[in-house]
Amino acid sequence: MWKELKQKQIRGRDFHRQKPIGEFIVDFYCPNLRLAIEIDGESHAGKEKEDVQRQEKLEQLGVHVLRFDDLEVKLVMESVLSRIRRWIDEHGNEE
């Protein structure tokens, strides 16, 4: 995923990886969009309630969160990237 996000490859947007935000570290973050991208792997199994609470706290900080399953990223990367592009196209002018 990082290979696809780095160096402003998606809509010219600058993404950082493993970015601290408040008490959390998000997988990928675009500061000018206030967009966090989270990839949920096996370590998230059984922690759905905690993930929801974490996302709510991030949203309270004004961060938008897009969440993807790691298998989705591995198996259908282009679909994931399309969803990210679509989100940027729909919300990118709200900066």
SSE blueprint:
Elements (H helix, E strand, L loop, with lengths): L1 H4 L10 E6 L2 E7 L4 E6 L7 H13 L3 E6 H6 L1 H15 L4
Parallel strand pairs: 3-4
Antiparallel strand pairs: 1-2, 2-3
Give an account of the 3D structure.
The protein has about 100 residues and is of the alpha+beta class. It has a single domain (about 1-95), classed as 3-Layer(aba) Sandwich (Endonuclease, Chain A). The protein has helices spanning about 1-5, 50-60, 70-75, 75-90, and strands at about 15-20, 25-30, 35-40, 65-70. Helix 2 links the parallel strand 3 (about 35-40) and strand 4 (about 65-70). The longest helix has 15 residues, at about 75-90. The radius of gyration is 13 Å and the shape is globular.
Fraction of residues in H or I helices: 40-55%
Quaternary organisation: single chain
Given the helix and strand composition, which structural class is it? alpha+beta
Separation of termini?
A: 24 Å
State the low-pLDDT regions, or none: none
Helices, by number, come to: 4
Query: Which range does the strand content fall in?
Result: 25-35%
In short, what is this structure?
By secondary structure, this protein is an alpha+beta fold. The chain contains 4 helices and 4 strands; from the N terminus they run H-E-E-E-H-E-H-H.
